[in-house]
Every structure is written in C-alpha cells, then in structure tokens.
Amino acid sequence: MRKKIAFVLCILLCTLSMGCSKGTDPQQTDLSTSIEQTETPDGGKIVTDQTEVQAMAGAIVENMSLEEKIGQMFIVNLEQLDNSHGNYYEFRKFTSKMENTLKKYYIGGVILFARNIENIDQTKNMITELQNHASIPLFVSVDEEGGDVARVGNNSNMRTTTFPPMEEVGKNEDEKYAYNMGKTIASEIKELGFNLDFAPVADVKTNEYNTEIGNRAFGSDAKLVSKFVKQVVKGIQEQGISATLKHFPGHGSTNGDSHKTPVNADTDLLSLRSREFKPFKAGIEAGADFVMVSHISISKVTENTVPASMSSVVMQNMLRDELKFKGIIITDGMDMGAITEKYDADEAAVNCIKAGADIVLMSTDVEAAYDAVKQAVEKGEIDEKSIDESVQRILEVKIKRGIILSNTDLLKER
User: Fold this and answer.
1) Which residues span the domain enclosing 4?
2) Is 251 a catalytic residue?
3) Domain co-membership, 229 together with 296
4) Is 149 helix (H, G, I), strand (E, B) or coil?
C-alpha cells in the first residue's frame, strides 16, 4: 500500500511541477479551465488540470480508512452535528458537540439554512469554525437559487443582491441576465465561505398545480429552461463554486410535494427524454459538478414506486449511462416526508448508496446511517470499490474547487 501511494504521489508531483495535457472530456475540460491555478499564502495551489486532479484524489483515497471514506458521503445540517436541541434549532454559533460529530464521523459537508444565518460576520465565523475543526475540508452548502429560495439573499443583514423568481427570469428570455445572476450569487456566497450552491433548478414546470417547484422553475418550455440552466451553471462555476442541477429526473410534472409525502410522477420514458432530461443534459454539458436526485418515483418507467434517490435505474441507467454524468450524485434531503414515511435513516442511507448515490443529504440520524453503511460494506452488501469511486468523485471536486489544496496533509502517510 505504501509503495502504491508513493508511486501515485510521484506522478502527481511530476505533473504539478512540469504540467501535462488537459483531459479530453468536454465536461471535465470546461471545469478545469474555469479557474486559474492560484497559489495561497502558505504555498498551496488550486489544482485544476484534470489529470493532476485525478492523481491527487486517487492518492488521498488510497490513504483513507473505510470510516473516513464513508464520512465523506454525508452532508448534514447543523442540528445533525449537534442534536441536543432537536430539529430546526437556530444554531448560529459553533459548539463542542459539532466538533465531536465532525471528527467522529469524518463528515464530508454541511448545509446552512436561513435559521443559521444572522449577519455577515456571524456567518463567516461559523463557516470558519466548521472548516477549522473538520478532518477533511468540507463542502459548505446553501440553497441559493434566487427568488423565494435564497437563504442568504432574503436576509437584509447580508447585504447581497436579490433576484426575482426564476419563472420571471425565464419570461424575460435574457440568457445573459441568467449568467450574470449565477455569477453574482456565486461571488457573494463565496465571500462568506460557501463553496457549494444547490442551484439551479432544472425542472420543467408543466403542471400548473405543482406547488413544490412553483415559480422556482424557469418555465414550461424545455428548450428555454435548458438555455437558462446552462448559463446559470456557467456563471456559478466560473466563480469557483460548485453548481447543482435539481431535481432529477424532473419534478415539474407532479402535483404532490415530496417534502410532505411520497409522490409518483405519471411520466413515461419518452416524455422524460423529450422534456425533463433536456435541461439536465444542458447543465451536464456545461460542466455542473452535482446533480441532486429527487424522492419522486416514476412507476411507468421503473415499474415500482421506489424513490428516484433509491433507484439504480434512475441514477445508473439514466443519469450515468444515458446522460453521461460523471460528477457527484447527491440525494435530496433525507428528512423529507417521501422518505421518512417509509424508511428509517439507516435503511434509507444504505438504499441510496447501493443504488448509486455518492452523497446522502441530511440524514435524520447521522450516527445510525453512518453505522449502517459501514456494516453493509463490511458484510459485502456494498462493494468497497463503489465507495472508493464515490469518494474519488467527491475529492476531485473538492480539489478543483480549491477546497483541498496541493499541499494538503491528506497526501502524507498516516
């Protein structure tokens, strides 16, 4: 093992010092050319060349324990880091219990909500504390779509730019505005310490009674939505922030709310391909780092009512194989009614990862979910190779977005 790590590190150091050719994958090339390689005061570099990124991530994975790898596959909210006050507590300061949970489970990322965001200094301090106490640098995420779903933008104390609902943006048919909106949102949340935005919404709203998506979608025309999604992704990621296409395979045709109850979309494969998939395909071609998979079911396609977030047909056959997505697949929040009505946290996490999810978002019981995934790997129910592949994807994004730098201690023998 030590020789293998040393060999990979040797290749990595050579490519960092001498340079090498860019990858030929259009998705990866777009990402790697969006940020210049910069050096930090302590000598670390943001590595963007895809060959170097892959080698560096691979070397880190080789040096990680199973426990560390599983931890990277969870993004949690602050109440899950410190459960002493119950759900939806307005944590605005870092606590010792948060520190303990971060280190015990090697958590891969956190998400902040409006209840956690008071003002600029408080938010910066919270994020700094979270990063300082993480074993591996964190994804720090937020739902910052613009319009009604803007945890930062809708707080006047944050003094950031506000934007109209995406439905209004789409009506204007101004693609440059969409690009600048993504760029502005990303640059402003980056200043606070965020590095992952759960935006843009790539759903095509075709059901006027849809309340979950509502005015969050750019419109009902797949071609128009595709153009706007592509521009927002470019605007966000050119600022070094990861963008997320949501909610695959498309939530705009439903009339139920998966936050509250299970929802089945009465959509066949032909409709998905001719409508719902198009904005996701456009966002993937623009280089989106993440795709968020919803909890809706599509029984006409899968012949069951298993949530998309637990369906290998959705994640592997559709997203990986058909749409050629190579980035990170993340579930929608596991605290939503579509999941909690039917599944406990441990079963839900195992099902999602088995089906192809790289990251489980907001498990209702992090300890139970983490332990269940670890046991499933140890029993052979989940192949550790698939865990390695997920963590490789996670680390590659963390590296090229400057979350993990070239001089990281994670490359040292431990």
Assistant:
1) 1-63+383-414
2) no
3) yes
4) strand
H or E element in which residue 232 lies: helix 222-237
Put simply, whether the predicted model's pTM sits higher than 0.70 gets the answer yes
Flag residues of the chain having pLDDT under 70: 1-42, 210, 253, 255-258, 260-261, 414
Q: Kindly list the strands in the beta sheet with 139-142, ordered across the sheet, starting from the edge strand earlier in the chain.
A: 196-197, 139-142, 109-112, 74-77, 360-361
Same domain, 238 and 318: yes
Catalytic pick among 332, 335, 358, 365: 332
CATH number of the domain that 171 lies in?
A: 3.20.20.300
Instruction: Say whether 247 is catalytic.
Output: no
Q: Which of 30, 133, 259, 371 is catalytic?
A: 259
Extract the tokens encoding 300. 């006409």
39 and 87 housed in the same domain: no
| Residue keyed to tokens 């396609």 | 301
CA distances (Å), 399 to each of 113, 115, 158, 169, 176, in order? 25, 29, 28, 33, 29
Q: Please tell me the distance from the alpha carbon of residue 312 to that of residue 334, in angstroms, as a whole number.
A: 17
| DSSP assignments along 356-382, one per residue | T-SBEE--S-HHHHHHHHHHHHHTTSS
Q: Which residues contact 55 (CB under 8 A, 6 or more apart)?
A: 8, 11, 12, 15
161, 46: one domain: no
Residues contacting 57, CB < 8 A, separation 6+? 392, 395, 396, 399
Q: Are residues 51 and 79 in the same domain?
A: no
For residues 188 and 273, membership in a common domain is answered with yes
Query: What's the CA gap between 246 and 265, in Å, rounded?
Result: 15
